[in-house]
Fold this sequence. Notes:
By secondary structure, this protein is mainly beta. It has strands at about 1-5, 10-20, 40-50, 55, 70, 75, 85-90, 95-100.
Amino acid sequence: MDIKNIGSRSGKEVIQLYLSYPENISDPVSGEAVDMPVKVLRNFDKIELHAAETKSVEMFLTRKDLSYWSVVQRNWVMPENDEFTIAVGRSSRDIRLRGTY
């Protein structure tokens, strides 16, 4: 993702990556519904930009970032065959980019 400073002075920006889990996740062993938050902060980066400068920012997610803790299995479990929503912005209320995985 490219971030551009459209101002006339240098500044800093924090870019945040949020993950929303698929709806209706159930534990593969017990079949019980897993209660997940609406969105979870999974990565962030603070960059400095000079006036009119553009920088490319890359963020990565690990398998653990996509997983939840299963009390039944006592291990991290990644939902399979479901679609995650990935959102990037300045805050959870200021999302500028959204996609699915």
